Amino acid sequence: MSTREVPVVIITGYLGSGKTTLMQNILKQEDRKIALIVNDMGSVNIDASILDKTGNQVAQVEMVEMQNGCICCTLRDEFMAEIERLSEDKSVEAIFVEASGISEPSSIAGAFLNYEEMSENTRVYLKTVVSVVDADRIYREFLHNLTSDEDAEEGDVINLIIDQIEFCNLMVLNKIDLLSAEQLKEVKEGLRDLQQEAEMIECMNGKVDLDAILEKEDFDYDEALAYSAVQRALNNCEHEDEKACVDEYGISSFVFEERKPFNREAFNKFVEDYPEALIRTKGYIWFSDDWEHVQLFEQAGRNASTTEVSEWVSAWPEEELDKVVNDFPDIKDDWDEVYGDRCNQVVFIGKGYEKAEIVKLLYDCIDKAG
Fold first, then answer.
1. Within a domain: residue 123?
2. Separation between Cα atoms, residue 156 and residue 14, nearest integer Å
3. Residue 59 pLDDT exceeds 60
4. Considering 227, 244, 262, which residue would you say is the last residue of a domain?
5. Which of 51, 84, 139, 219 is deepest in the core (most CB within 10 A)?
6. pTM for the whole thing?
7. CA-CA-CA-CA torsion for 18, 19, 22, 28, nearest 10 degrees?
8. Distances (CA, A) of 358 to 244, 351, 355, 366
């Protein structure tokens, strides 16, 4: 069996968080040879063109541009092929992957680890998943009300940012110079509500020492998944009593489950006046005026969004449904005679709220005729 000796570091973070600036600074560090893969969703890879102008240090760094796709989905095969090619250079100390700002780190890491397990001769291993966090944006858009209505999709954006924060083993808290000491303290406390285990490094202009990223315990997928406040709630509340599960940080969580659908208008009103004590919410719901589609409901700080994501299996044409049930009979284990697989299942996480009050508000949104 071969020795896996080339660490791979995945750099995630939303657009504008400072991923490219972080990579520029890493590439400038003397006497270190890093191979770099830059993934950009556009047809012109702007990030790679910026990095290419960094200076003499970049000349000795091999850089691969991956365009017109995302490494967490359409480019997986190409992604791994490039990593293997780069790892053949014995002088390369590590391979850094700058993911697209809209990539899901859990999907990238999952694909990478699956490849590791199936490839006996690979020299690479996943060392670290880094989430670059814009401290100023978190302060303005997660902890406090938005200052403008210019971007109608800000709720979706902040939810993606929080997803990236939840799945990592290192947070690089960037742009701290834009906040006061008290504001920064508030941001760090808010992030710890969501991600209690990952190491946190504070920086300005993406200036982080390479050893701070490489000299860490190796990335553990299962642990990173468990870091998520949502996953902790699901794990801890499977056999909950009437009280919400409370951890050592004073954060409580519970899972709301109900077969009957929400009334869309009532649920939207609930979201408009969302309880301030709730930090994070995520789950699948459905509405009485739409028996076909699964809706993903997410809330992070002051932002909330509901997005149509797929179809309920029970909404499929009868001939397709019969085939699925025949091939996967377990699907009927949690099947309701009236609603099929339709169900509201939502995780609520917060501090200082009364579970009974939240549950009452939710049941007030259930369509009584549903």
1. yes
2. 12
3. no
4. 227
5. 219
6. 0.69
7. -130
8. 11, 12, 5, 13
Does 263 score more than 90 pLDDT?
yes
Residue type, 129: V
Q: In degrees rounded to 5, what are phi and psi of residue 158? A: -65, -30
Most confident region among 89-93, 251-255, 299-303, 357-361 by mean pLDDT = 357-361
Rounded Cα gap, residues 5 and 258, in angstroms: 49
pLDDT in tens, 22-44: 988 888 787 788 888 876 545 44
What is residue 305's DSSP assignment? E
Domain with 220 in it: 6-227
* Res 222 pLDDT > 70: yes
Token pair recorded at residue 86:
């780069």
Determine phi and psi for 86, rounding to 5 degrees.
Answer: -65, -35
286 and 191 share one domain:
no
Regarding whether 131 and 55 lie in a shared domain, the answer is yes
- Is residue 284 included in any domain, yes or no? yes
> Does pLDDT of 243 surpass 60?
no
Q: Which of 248, 140, 146, 232 is nearest to 187 (CA)?
A: 140
Number of domains in the chain: 2
Q: 16 and 108, same structural domain? A: yes
Question: Once rounded to an integer, what is the mean pLDDT over residues 220-230?
Answer: 77
Q: Is residue 370 part of a domain?
A: no
Q: Mean pLDDT, to the nearest integer, of 169-187?
A: 94
Distance CA 41, CA 101 (A): 9
248 pLDDT band, cuts 50/70/90, is very low
SS3 315: helix
pLDDT on residue 149: 39
Q: Encoding tokens for residue 76?
A: 């997986």
CATH number at residue 338: 3.30.1220.10
Same domain assignment for residues 165 and 194: yes
For residue 58 the two structure tokens come to 């970049």
> How far is residue 91 from each of residues 5, 65, 71, 88, 324, measured CA to CA in Å?
12, 20, 25, 9, 51
* 301, 356: one domain: yes
Is the distance from CB of 294 to CB of 286 less than 8 angstroms? yes
